[in-house]
Amino acid sequence: MAFKIEPIHYSVGGTSIVLQPFDVPGSRLVDGAVFPLALELTKTSPGPLTPDEAALALRDISERGITTELLNKHGAILIRGVGNPSAKTFSKLVKASEEGRGRKPYEQLGFSGSRTEVDDEVFSASEAPQHVRIGQHNENAIHTRFPSNIHFYCVKAATKGGESPLCHIGELFDRVQAEMPQFVEDLAKKGLLTTDNYQAPGKESKQFPTSWAGTSAFGQDIRPGDDIETMKAKAEKQVKQLTPYFKWLEDDLLQTQEHVPGLRRSPATNRPLWFNSVASRYRFAKDIGAGNPPYVGADGQSYPPSNYRYRDGTQIPIEWLARLVDITDDIVFNFTMSPGDLVLVNNFLVSHGREPWYEGERRILVSMWDTDNPEERIRDY
Ligand SMILES: [Fe+2]
């Protein structure tokens, strides 16, 4: 499929820079726009484009409203052509781009994975083991709070596997509506109940080495030397920002329950969106061998159908989840990032995932941003 998009020319600080659209294999056409939009940054004057020059360019197009317009239209933008792949380069580029359009860093809360801050507003992507697939999800859509944007950057690419697939959740909504209208109707009516279990510090699982005391979960105020009761009291204060429904179980395991809608609308176009994580939850169970009765995985854990619930406590039929996973696989843009690739993602239009990798080292970084402007927040369905 070929898409015709005009190059963007401009001059910053005496340097002429061109944002040249290019075709990426596997890109899709959604709502009349190419998804994702791919832009090569080049300089018309001699010498390579430096991260500082690229940052000036990205800040400029953000200040002029172009970044927001493109993210609302295309869902995701791949930017290629900036040298020196590093966390520092990513930090420079992403801050220029997001600060330029008035966005603020997203304050992480309730994150059940594991991440490390490696530079200013830059974190490691999920630290889950490399053989684990992370299915399609909108960042923190299982929670009542989530970022408007999650951006990705590649420092090192695996030599086998390790793709970073993206899915347009407008296209996904349309497909589910066409094939399983009852699923859409039930989800619209009932919403979702998400249950999360957070291990106590020191009792983290090998698969997802994280606890409720992590600084991106509920440990923001916990200080060295706090005893367990103080830690729990501090964590509870954070939990209450997400949900009033939580309890402490045996071994100081924290269980939270949240009510989330599952369907939303784009703030830019009002188009309906499939904004949730039910596909990735079922995908995880399926990958571990627990997709069918008796729903026990290779890890010996049980992944019963009752894990997938509507807000009223009733179950989502397993066959609908299986079909949802197939539809998602059918429409994803499956992409292997190269070192230096920057992918700006509108979390309100596009979900993301991660494929397992088998050879080489993969180092992908993320940066999450948010907006206070109610006009830019995702809408109710
Ligand atoms: Fe994610």
From TrEMBL:
UniProt keyword Oxidoreductase present: yes
**Keyword terms:** Oxidoreductase
Instruction: Output the SUPFAM superfamilies linked to this UniProt entry.
Output: Clavaminate synthase-like
MF-aspect GO terms: oxidoreductase activity
Membrane spanning residue stretches: none
For this protein, the record's Pfam families field holds: TauD
Boundaries of each TauD/TfdA-like domain copy? Answer: 64-369
Q: Matching InterPro entries, A to Z?
A: AlphaKG_dependent_hydroxylases (IPR050411), TauD-like_sf (IPR042098), TauD/TfdA-like (IPR003819)
Q: What PANTHER family does this protein map onto?
A: GAMMA-BUTYROBETAINE HYDROXYLASE-RELATED, TAUD_TFDA-LIKE DOMAIN-CONTAINING PROTEIN
Name of this chain's protein = Clavaminate synthase-like protein
Name the species this protein comes from: Lepidopterella palustris CBS 459.81
| Lineage, opening ranks | Eukaryota, Fungi, Dikarya, Ascomycota, Pezizomycotina
